[in-house]
Amino acid sequence: MDAVTSLAPSSPARALAREVLIRGPISRGDLAARLGLSVASLTRLSRPLLDSGVLREADEAASTSIGRPIRPLEVSPESHRFVGVKLTGDSAAAVATDLRSDVIGSSERPLRSHGVEDVVGTIADAVADLGAPGDFSGIGVSIGGKVGPGDMVLRAPFLGWRDVPLAALLQERTGLPVAVENDVVALTVAEQWFGAGRGEKDFAVLTVGAGVGYGLVVNDAVIAPPDAGLGLVGHFPLEASGPRCSEGHRGCASAVLTIPGICSRFAASTGQQAPYAAILALAAERHPAASEIVDTAGAALGTLVSAVANLTMVELVILSGEGMDLADVAAASLHGSITRHRDPEATAVRLSRQPSDFAQWARGAAAVAIQRTILGTLR
User: Fold this and answer.
1) Full-prediction pTM beyond 0.85?
2) How far is CA 34 from its chain centroid?
């Protein structure tokens, strides 16, 4: 089963649970209409989920003209707990969540090394910080790299890994079901189910940090082919005369938008090293070099946003990642660039700025674990 298929509902029971997870509280009538089910079929499919405690009837009942009030269905958030882990080259940032992917605890552990056993041990320690294995129904791990069948990490450049069976090793260590997914795909799932994309049939996600990431939802399905983990959007050309990236591409997204790219450009312009946050602060104060670099990057981000919207015809683009404060500081150049690159009669692009910390990425990993663990038990 490929990644595109695995991220879409494939049975009436899974579709029902997914609809309630994403859209609940939701009336039985709306559920039946959305899923094309009869009331009898809906009752039959929902009964096991109600009996197991995954779903419940909401407190607020809908009024009816005859008979007793009918209560809409919603998830029971406290019925399951999950751990989501964002794995970087430096640390394992973990969050504990409920069934709605709301964060109820967090932990971060530095990596002792990039050795597989050390990384697995660090993740297990971060999970233990949040509770005993019996407290959780599953673990999700998001990683900047390519993930293949069996949740095998095929490539993770920042760890120097190839063909590492991370899910199997972590499951053996913790005794819990483990789901491993590319970090941008996981974040897109979280936005679709629980975030700014909730209730949207089509949207895109752009992330800026150490790299540039791109996620896409079309017709309510996350588009996640095998190459989703290669970071292909990172080499999308944005600035013809811009600096070169590590692969030698001139003015690509990685060279122009990323935290290392902007820091490198500032150092080349001023002869001074400065952290990313300081460069953004200087730009906000209209420091000549910093403001020119940040405004140029903001315009390039607008070019990328408009390219995504033009090519996929989505109206909503969600902006996230630890480097996306760029969108706030360079808001004027960002929006001006979008306007220049869009047909004046096209629908306006809606931008949604999301939190920029690692907890948001870890929450995405938990959302994948929720999806796999809960929906994976349904037929």
Assistant:
1) yes
2) 25
